[in-house]
Amino acid sequence: MKSREQEYREIFIAEALEYYDAMSRHISELERNPTDEPALNELFRLMHNLKSNARAMGYNPIGELAHHMETIFGLIRSREKTFTGSVVPVLFTGIDTIGQMIRAVGEDEALPEVEQLLENLDRLVRGEEPILETGPEDEEDASRKLELSDLVYIQIRKLDHLLNLVGELTIDRDRVLTLSQEIGNPALAAAAAHLSRIADELQYSVMDARLVGVGSLFNKFPRVVRDVATTEKKDVELTVVGEDIQIDRNILQIITDALLHLVRNAIGHGLETPEERVAAGKTAQGHLTLSAQAERDDVLIQVRDDGRGINVESVRRKAVERGLVPAATAANLDDDAVRDFLFEPGFSMAKEVTEISGRGVGLDVVKLAIDSLGGQLRVDSTLGEGTTFTLVLPTSIAVKGALLFQLDQRNYAIPLMHTDSVVSLLPENFNVVGGVLLTRVQDENVPVVSLRRLLHNGDGPLAPATKADLNGRQDIIIVNYSNRRLGLIVDRFLRQQDIVVKPMSKPLDTIDLFGGVTLLGSGQVCLVLDVPALTRLFLAKRP
Hints:
Blueprint: H1 4-32, H2 37-57, H3 60-77, H4 87-106, H5 115-126, H6 139-142, H7 156-183, H8 186-209, E1 211-213, H9 215-218, H10 221-232, E2 236-241, E3 246-248, H11 249-270, H12 274-279, E4 286-295, E5 298-305, H13 312-321, H14 327-331, H15 335-339, H16 364-372, E6 376-382, E7 386-394, E8 399-407, E9 410-415, E10 419-425, E11 430-433, E12 436-441, E13 444-450, H17 451-456, E14 474-481, E15 484-490, E16 492-500, E17 514-519, E18 525-529, H18 531-541
Parallel strand pairs: 2-4, 9-18, 13-15
Antiparallel strand pairs: 1-3, 4-5, 5-7, 6-7, 8-9, 8-16, 10-14, 11-12, 12-13, 14-15, 17-18
Helix pairs in contact: 1-2, 1-4, 2-3, 3-4, 3-5, 4-5, 7-8, 10-11, 11-16
């Protein structure tokens, strides 16, 4: 399997060869018309990009030559030089040499010597005549071979369509496997096993083709931070970590606005002014870190600042003022529960409306974007020290890991992203507090509810629970959403399985409790539960 370094090298070589082809075309256009500004601008741009990419990859000789060539094209653009006389053969030689160097890198060969060429380019800059050689450096040019790039650019919509087809294939693969097991024919079983391997490899290949480095988004933020910091009259240093972490391009697209909001929020709300920081014993310059890291099948993206932190008591008072919670209840909420109010629609701690904050657009927008991906959003904060927002995202949204279970003899699926654990408990493991069943899981009291009652309860509140409702051992799925854990009592656990989630058709798509539908290998339709919606429903209906 290729390393990331090998993949980046191959991408660099493919792109560099495309640059070389474009350079060759444009310099020929410039030779025909020395005043062709579009061709000249393109040559300057291509040299600049090649220089940057080569230096980033550590191919400094290529970067150095491209830099010298960029300088000459810059002088021609500014009309300090003209594309005539000895300038022409030197620049043609430079482009040919760039092509040789790129091919040498691709074939792990020694790079050609370029000292004389660099000297000639320097001579042109100084206004001196270059030393030109002719001879055999011409026969080679006349017999040059043509090469095509190994890189193919594909529109995202085409990859989306291909991924949908792979999803359909995955469903049919599971059905064929199930049938082969039922029939028991060895030849059919062997063919089904081979189909399964091919389908798996195709699935992961397509998913891999959609992966991009988060750096493609992160690298847009230095300018954003500068502009917002200037508007807010703050001094902010941005640190970017983990740009090479890979994630599905569509996921990156969906979280773009959410990440932008979090960064603006960190500068506008989190970081203090230089005067406030110095008075608090901090450096005048605030520090903001944008980082990504892989964790099992997830990608964690964090926005961390070393600012004032979240004042939990201020949030608590604001929540009471907004009527989100009674004062008596608010007084007993822990810090995590209070910080969750920040994600309520329209909730804002801003004292005045600015370009950055106080416009009624709050963190609920961020939460909705993460929920739509089946991800999680966490917030950790220490007053006076700073705040960290963590986005827990799936690597891919095409195929999801899920836990299958039964309720009333129907199959359901619940995403593993929101599943903490599964437990089987006896009635004596439960207590009833305030009409709610509680059980102890991993040193924490977790509320438990019958999923059947939650789904079928209608519009009224849940009746107070009693231990008399429990009959024998209970199978429970512990789910986690927004730092809230909830136990769902089901009839029977089935198995873990990768599923392809399809959107619900009308009018079922209006039911918030289901995030989609999938087909099992048996051909059965299986509803996929929406954990955020279930959690909100329980909180709304609890006695």
